[in-house]
Please model this.
Amino acid sequence: MPIRTAVPPRVLTVAGSDSGGGAGIQADLKTMLALGVHGMSVLTAVTAQNSLGVQGAWELPVDAVRAQYRSVVDDIGVQAVKTGMLSSAALVETVAALLATTDAPVVVDPVGVSKHGDALLAAEALDSVRTKLLPVATVATPNLDEVTQLTGVTVTDESGMRRAAEEILAFGPRWVVIKGGHLPGEAVDLLTDGNAEHWLRAPRHDNRHTHGTGCTLASAIASGLALGKDVPTAVRDAKTYVTGAIEAGFPLGGGIGPVDHGWRTRPAGSTGTDPAGTDPAA
Model:
C-alpha cells in the first residue's frame, strides 16, 4: 500500500474526560476523526461519568494543562482549537491566556452543566469566562442554560434568542451560536456576529439518547474551520452532522445514551438497537 504523506488539518480540544465515552474529550476526538481532521487533546479534568450522570470530577493542575497545551502547539501546531469543560477560574484564565498566543480560530463551548444537570463549572469561574475566555473566541456555542448562567437572560422563544446573542456578543466573541434545542418545536439555532443572522433549523428527532450534543457541535465547527470553511459554512455543516448523530443516537446503560459520531459510515440498521437489553424504554 502507498504511504500517505498528506497531513490532515489539526484540531486541538481542551476539555474534560467522559469515562462513558459520550461527551468531553472522547466525543471531540470521535467527531474530529469522522470529519477528516487530526484530533489532539489537552485534558483539563477527569470525570467518573456514565449514562446516569456524573459521579465524580477531579480537576488537573494548571501546570499540567499548560504543559499539555505547549507540548502540542509548539511542536505539532494547530489549525483550530475547541474548549469544553474548564471547571475553575484558574483553569479558565490559564487556557484563555494560552489561546491569546495561538494564531488559530477558537470555538468556546462554555460548559456549565452536564446533560444530567450536574455542575461542571464553579460559580466563581463565570466572571473569568465572561472577561477572559469569551473575548478570545472566534465562535461561542452556549445552550440556553449557559446563556442564563452567563447573562441572566431566560430564553423562551426565538426573539429571546436574539437578545441572548446580543448579550453574549457583548463579552467579545466574534460570532455566537445560541443553541435553541431546549425550546419546543423544531431544533433551531441562531448564528450571528451582530450583523448577519443565520437561523439554522432541523427536524426534532424523537430520540432521548442525546448525550454529547454540545461537545460534538463545537468540535464539528472547529473541524470545519480547520478545513478552511468560513464560520457560517462551518456552523451549518456542523449542524447537519449533529442532527444526523442525534437521529442515530443509541442506548447505553440505564440512562441517556450518546449520539452516534460514526453515523455516516455505520451500516444501515446497526444503531438504535440494544442487544444487551439495557434500554430502560424497552
